[in-house]
Amino acid sequence: MLSLHPHTLPARAPVRVLELFAGAGGAALGLHAAGFEHVACVERDASAAATLRAAGFPAVEADVRDLDYASLAGTIDVLWASPPCQAWSKANQHADQKGAEDVDRNGWPWTLRVVRLVRPRWAIFENVKNARAYVERTVVPELRKLFAHVVIWVLNAADHGVPQSRTRLFVIAGPLAVSPPRSEPRRSMRDAIGVAYDKPAPCVMTNEWKGRPTDPSWWKKLNNASDALAIATKGARRKLTLGECAALQTFPEGYPFTGDVEARYRQVGNAVPPVLAAVVARAVRAAEEGAETVRESLPALGALADRVLARAVVLVRGRPPRGIGAEDIDRFVLRHAGRLRAHVVDVIDKRAA
Ligand SMILES: C[S@@+](CC[C@H](N)C(=O)[O-])C[C@H]1O[C@@H](n2cnc3c(N)ncnc32)[C@H](O)[C@@H]1O
Predict the structure, then answer these.
(1) 146 and 230 belong to one structural domain
(2) Cα separation of 98 and 87, whole Å?
(3) What number does the ligand 1 atom closest to the CA of 126 have?
(4) Which DSSP category does 104 fall into?
(5) 81 C-alpha to center of ligand 1: Å?
(6) Helix (H) or strand (E) holding 40
(7) 3-class SS at 79?
(8) Are residue 44 and residue 145 in the same domain, yes or no?
(9) What is the DSSP secondary structure assignment for residue 70, as one 8-state letter?
């Protein structure tokens, strides 16, 4: 069994990420853009793992079930996983319960197992939106036992800077509440790859390399980005190039996809758009930074409260209420110093807000 020992992994990073089912690194790129650093990207497909290595990510080419995670316990800030989701994808309409029983096509049970072993500060999962019922029933209750806050977001990438309609489910579990990202103006297929189609592209699929039938009735379904391209080019049949698919997915130009044609298109079509992953990662970062600001400002607020309190004591001692001596005031302040200070901090804090 391969051991993921901290000594063999990069030195402490600002936010340490363990990613499972990492594919070619779409999510990894987004996390990196948000300032997170991977200690390991676990992926069993040889071509995808080669892409991860070529892009500079710490790929661990292995089945997630063959690793020993014990040594990572307590060292991981974010566990990100995109468990295999064929069981719920539109192309494969199985009942979600059936999917849950098929371990090889359903990565959720293993993902939860790793969460329990590693105990990350945050767990972030991405999946197709059809998985929602299963996730709500089976995954969320387990996460609630381990994390203070668990939310599900269904985000369309087109609303977050990606020139493609791609609706995905995100589960975010952690110690703090996270605010969902705001929508941004949409980008069209024309903006991204210069073809005459003025909407975001439909979903980029893993099989774009095959192209589409020439029968225009097929395109009415507008299932994927190649269909939109066919309409934009007045029906001329042309499949999207790998570069076009990668651009619609917001991969940087020249990203080193590795493997044969089919493998490279599959890696692109399987990916979380990096820009969408970055949006989710930044939301988590903002929650951490919000908490950090409060933590940082507490000492300053405390010092101010001490000054206010000292001034109040001087004033009251100078003109003590009838029947109360200076020693009574000192005794009272000493006895209730903690509560008085907390109250003053509270008042100052509310005024500042
Ligand atoms: C939906 S893709 C993930 C895409 C990735 N999040 C990205 O943004 O590029 C799922 C990946 O899980 C990998 N995978 C499936 N079962 C696996 C297993 N048991 N162990 C490791 N990787 C696995 C597949 O090879 C595939 O690349």
Answers:
(1) no
(2) 8
(3) 6
(4) T
(5) 9
(6) strand 37-43
(7) strand
(8) yes
(9) G
Pairing of strands 167-174, 149-156: antiparallel
pLDDT digits (tens, 9 = 90+) for 233-260: 776 667 889 999 999 999 999 999 999 9
Same domain, 60 and 139: yes
User: Exposed, middle or buried: residue 243 (CB in 10 Å: 0-12, 13-18, 19+)?
Assistant: middle
Q: What is the pTM of this model?
A: 0.79
Closest atom of ligand 1 to CA, residue 24: 9
Q: Ligand 1: does its nearest atom lie under 6 Å from the Cβ of 27?
A: yes
Greatest C-alpha distance within the chain: 98
Q: What is the DSSP letter of 293?
A: H
**Cα gap 54→198, rounded to integer Å:** 34
Same domain, 98 and 16: yes
267 and 20 Cβ atoms separated by less than 8 Å: no
- Is residue 219 in a domain? yes
256-295 per-position pLDDT tens digit: 999 999 999 999 999 999 999 999 999 999 998 877 666 6
